[in-house]
């Protein structure tokens, strides 16, 4: 049985990473040519890791289920990337980024990992600028910053509303250089369907060519999982529809512990769903909360008038609007962390103040920002006594320069002009803080198997601060894994090529083929989407923004019954030996049906509220924090790492106790 050993180095927090790098084993350049590494996933984490490992001299096999790494879901990240550069001179530092991240995660993350993340964050910006990433710049030519939720400084670097896309293009260009040199062998349109364990070590994967259906064996000295999160367990989420948990779930079933599955992030700034037939939700970047103010009408009469079309939001005066985040959290206002903002929106809508037909929407309003920027521009341009129309014109130009593509996207989807009328937003499933448990080296409980980026659990605790996903993905891929993997691979320089002609590879391949044959030959009554939608409904209603004991127990029972029905009654059209998206989905939904039950089990076990995990039984009942989430540090200051034992209900809990030596453990307050 695997034992949890975080391998956190001894010594002062600020020196751990530096001292650790000074003493780990290295692989010399000549020997790196003898070592193969598989990287599954080519988003920001996988792409940066592939490029860097190949640059160092390793032979890399990179796998993407898309037709190109450029289509990884990282491309959808809009708002920015955090780094403690203190360009604004507003008091930022490594320690402050570390503190904000641990506090934002509701004190449920590993101190050493988070401090390392803060330390390498500054290097990421230099790396990306060198690659040509077109970060926004201020008037003087310096890189510009804006603020995101949960912080009191401006540390978010951005490229308009396309930050993820531009960063991914940087990583992709670095990959292409290595592909051209022959150091990266790229496998597009391939999906990993199992990991192969030889003598207790990860030594390869079984993959399916998604174009031809061919099942392939690939060997390596180490396997890196960089396949993203599991938000699509909810069916409706802001994730790309192809995003899935299969790679992570396969290594879990082979011995990698799955940590904190109940920690999922509900993003407060999404376009509300429009009907039962919708298959995806759209995120509006958190950067909009820098200038947008969130509100609902104060009076129920106005709510009903707006819903029925008798009034427009622009008809309401300032006195008739409830800027509820500014009212409740004066210190942070509209920039409270995502979990706080999401629950506040849900509370207002549950109380009946939602402003769309379904009652599930609040307003995100840019009127004040347009007016403020317009007056500032009029002064700069020497325009005396500008008209209201001129102020609006000048202000809209500034807002367009900062957020233009986001406004354009909103208008295309909703058919409403957000410059003239407030956006409507509502929380939606977005990011997963839980994932495969890893130690300080980013290695899972399977020797030689690593997990990086959103696929692991390591840095965000129970809630991720905005603009930290890109930071973690690139930190892991560019600056952490390339060091730590060498410490393991130093023992493999004389191993030689790993053969795929072994019983371990044969058994794994046969298991994959058997499962595919089942799906193709099972003549059931229902489509894969039928089951995915049913699972998503259970997850959203009983494991969503709020959870309680009764609902979680019901969820476990209902998901198990749904899974049993799936294996009896699912139908998959087409053939195995061809491009077959329904077959791909069947395997992924089968994994979600197991993961969903473990998610509910983890949420049931954690009877405290923390970050994105809100248990209705654990709420502050009085005092200044009345109604806010209530943690239980005495009983739950640990990482819940689950060991696979067959049925999700039988999973065994292992606890990594969290130590807080450099930050005082206290209840969060953003008031």
UniProtKB/TrEMBL annotation:
Localization of this protein: Cell membrane
Main location as per UniProt: membrane
InterPro entries, per the entry: FAD-dep_OxRdtase_2_FAD-bd, FAD/NAD-bd_sf, Fum_R/Succ_DH_flav-like_C_sf, Fum_Rdtase/Succ_DH_flav-like_C, SdhA/FrdA/AprA, Succ_DH/Fum_Rdt_flav_su, Succ_DH/fumarate_Rdtase_cat_sf
EC number: 1.3.5.1
Fumarate reductase/succinate dehydrogenase flavoprotein-like C-terminal domain residues: 532-670
Cellular component GO terms held in the UniProt record: plasma membrane
Keyword line: Cell membrane, Electron transport, FAD, Flavoprotein, Membrane, Oxidoreductase, Transport
Active site: 338
Matching PANTHER family: SUCCINATE DEHYDROGENASE 2 FLAVOPROTEIN SUBUNIT, SUCCINATE DEHYDROGENASE FLAVOPROTEIN SUBUNIT
Protein family according to the UniProt entry: Belongs to the FAD-dependent oxidoreductase 2 family. FRD/SDH subfamily.
Name used for this protein in its record: succinate dehydrogenase
Organism taxonomic ancestry: Bacteria, Pseudomonadati, Bacteroidota, Flavobacteriia, Flavobacteriales
